[in-house]
Amino acid sequence: MSLLVIHPAAGQSPAPVLRTTDADQIQAELAARGIRFERWSAAVDLPAAADPDTILAAYGPEIARVQATGHYPTVDTIRLAPDHPDRASLRQKFLAEHTHSEDEVRFFVEGRGLFCLHLGGEVLQVLCERNDWIAVPAGTRHWFDMGPEPQFCALRFFANPDGWVANFTGDGIAQNFPMLDDLLISA
Question: Model pTM?
Fold first, then answer.
């Protein structure tokens, strides 16, 4: 189940000001802050051995739907399982607060991951799961936690043909907030 937790940014009260699993409320809270969030149907169950081409073919209609807007001509997939050999280094890379010069658009077709958005005086933690589509605007300070044993697959949409390019902020704010497993335990 998708989850939104809103915290004051570091230096203020650590208690969340909102915690909700209501999809309509999540969408409304994020929209009020310029973040697009939708619930789509990830109707295809992927075989364990599905390669990127198989995943992209399985979700061809959803890819066409996004690309019809003309904003995101490049698409790829990211799929990580608990036995991925680079899971620890990838997790550390994604946990560092960063921005992108383009929107970060994801459609989760398996599993889950935690987007943490640093917006001025607050941090929004968005637990995205299968069926969640999120678009984080260019320049938004954020980090992503896939957990120590990642299990997710997402379609990634880009305006830039180079794909995922991060600009790391050097801010250690991510260390001040719960990680994916901590949020799941307190759910």
Answer: 0.93
